[in-house]
Design a protein that fits this description.
By secondary structure, this protein is α/β, with parallel strands linked by helices. The protein is 37% helix and 25% strand. Strands 6-7-8-3-9-10 form a 6-stranded mixed β-sheet, sandwiched between helices. A hairpin with a 2-residue loop joins strand 9 and strand 10. It is globular, with a radius of gyration of 25 Å.
């Protein structure tokens, strides 16, 4: 490919206005950057830093007039996108500029087949005979490494895994070989192995087609894997920019150093807790099967989510359940708290055998609690925070005054003031909402806490704060914890022991230091190898 110094994308002095009453007047202030053909520029920062605003401004997707560019230029191949009308932008979207969003399930239409959704890209920009369009759709699916494109073309999004759905989004974005590909946090909530595959796929497509890639992320581990240039944003301003290796090895700005320091180090935690402490949880030969697609005339497909799962957990200890999506780790967690019944095996809580499902939850008397992955879905948007935290103890018969006092104490413990009690969930950031969910779980003074991917979708700096809170809570209350995660860096920091799950079975288990330093199973080694790391 001929070399060129003409940038595919040049942003000059961009300001983006926020609505009146926002926490600051400008979402983006004075942003300038350049991106060359065949190169990858990573825009890094926490939620609210303005990085996704830049992506949406390029695509013309800002919710005008409340949020709109008010100064500067966005030059795409020399043309100022801010001067184009909707028709001009529509002509560029999908054909010359493609975008991959963070959550493919919200970007894909659930009632359209995969082939139909990719076909819409062709229909919007070119006229093709039906046979040729189908051939190109199949080629697009094959190009992103999806298995059996002839089968997937007629499948609905819900039948695909998260990684496969993200590959479909990339196929849509790359179908017409755009000059610029914008990726807005496309791997944030994916397993480390799936993330590694998606990153490798983007690099491969870029190499073959010479595409310029604008990659938005909060994870410097991802940056080290793919970036040529890096721009670091904080509260709407670019605070540092430069070559990737220069920024990674010798960051100049304190905020950049803070983001790098917040990456989970993955160093094995030495086992804590008394080896002779009371046994809180025993799981013996637990089996759980999911049946999907069952109908009047069909038996459905059976998936064994847990196969003879066994482990023991003592007071003050944390066991990490680690594996990819579909490995069964969340299914085991839901069985532990009674949200899902199991077919066979036993769950012993403090020596007492729990019945499957909701009956077991009632037997535990609130002493087993769960913190979920998505705090948005966990909190009632119509219930104030204080009421949400106090509701559990009140339902268990705790006097209202005592429950409210406990609620205020827990708000202080998780770093929120008493004024937070009278606010609604939407008034808090994602990290704050997860802190509230932890406080709500602790309100019943549990002896076992099950945390299901509680930090997977959080910025690294917020993630570090929540992990620190979990560690403090475990130490203060001497809780036994089952910590479910796909990130071995997080498991290394949090867990005394690790159980690695694959296809419903535990394939390796032992002290964290032993499993991470000397993994015995090939699957464990693959998980460790897939973790993105900063270059040495």
């Amino acid at each position: 490919m001929p070399a060129t110094t003409e940038p595919v994308l040049a942003i000059e002095g961009l300001d983006i206005r926020l609505p009146a009453g926002a926490d600051r007047p400008l979402a983006v202030q004075g942003a300038s950057l350049q991106l060359l053909r065949g190169k990858t520029l990573c825009v890094v920062g926490e939620s609210g830093s303005g990085k996704s605003m830049i992506a949406n401004a390029i695509m013309g997707l800002l919710p005008k007039p409340q949020v709109a560019p008010v100064a500067g230029r966005i030059l795409f191949q020399g043309q100022d996108l801010l001067q184009l009308g909707e028709a001009g932008l529509r002509a560029l979207r999908g054909s010359r500029i493609g975008m991959v969003f963070q959550e493919p399930m919200t970007a894909l239409n659930p009632v359209l087949k995969i082939g139909e959704q990719i076909g819409e890209v062709f229909d919007a920009h070119v006229t093709l005979p039906a046979a040729e369009k189908r051939r190109r759709i199949l080629a697009a699916l094959a190009d992103v490494g999806l298995p059996d494109p002839a089968l997937l073309i007629d499948s609905y999004p819900f039948r695909l895994s998260g990684g496969q759905r993200q590959r479909v989004m990339i196929a849509c974005a790359m179908a017409l070989e755009p000059a610029l590909l914008i990726c807005d946090e496309p791997t944030t909530a994916l397993d480390v192995t799936t993330q590694a595959q998606i990153l490798a796929l983007i690099k491969d497509l870029q190499h073959r087609r010479g595409t310029a890639v604008l990659f938005i992320t909060h994870d410097f581990g991802v940056v080290s894997e793919i970036a040529d240039q890096v721009v670091v944003m904080q509260t709407g301003r670019i605070v540092e920019a430069g070559a990737a290796q220069q920024v990674l090895r010798a960051p100049q700005h304190a905020y950049t150093r803070q983001l790098i320091a917040a990456i989970p180090h993955g160093q094995a935690r030495q086992a804590a807790g008394d080896a002779d402490a009371d046994v809180v949880l025993q799981v013996q030969d637990l089996c759980k099967t999911h049946v999907t697609g069952r109908g009047l005339f069909s038996r459905g497909r059976q998936v064994q989510a847990a196969k003879d799962v066994s482990f023991t957990l003592r007071q003050g200890q944390t066991l990490g359940l680690v594996g990819e999506s579909g490995s069964g780790k969340s299914s085991v967690g839901r069985c532990l708290v009674g949200l899902s019944p199991f077919e066979s095996g036993r769950i012993l809580f403090k020596g007492r055998s729990l019945l499957p499902g909701a009956s077991g939850m009632r037997q535990a008397g609130g002493k087993i609690q769960m913190v979920f992955q998505d705090p948005n879905a966990s909190l009632n948007p119509r219930q104030k925070i204080g009421a949400a935290i106090a509701a559990g103890p009140i339902a268990q018969g705790v006097p209202v005054a005592e429950a409210l006092a406990r609620m205020r104490e827990l708000l202080a413990l998780v770093g929120l003031g008493p004024e937070a009690a009278d606010r609604w969930p939407h008034a808090f950031s994602g990290g704050q909402r997860q802190r509230i969910c932890i406080a709500r779980a602790l309100a019943l003074r549990p002896e076992l806490l099950v945390a299901d991917e509680p930090v997977s979708a959080l910025d690294v700096s917020v993630q570090a704060q929540v992990l620190k809170l979990f560690a403090e809570v475990r130490q203060r209350f001497q809780l036994a914890m089952v910590f479910i995660t796909h990130d071995l860096r997080v498991a290394g920091e949090m867990c005394d022991h690790i159980a690695v799950m694959q296809r419903g079975a535990i394939v390796e288990m032992g002290p964290t230091a032993q499993v991470l330093a000397d993994p015995q199973h090939a699957y464990t080694r693959a998980l460790i190898e897939a973790v993105p790391r900063l270059a040495a």
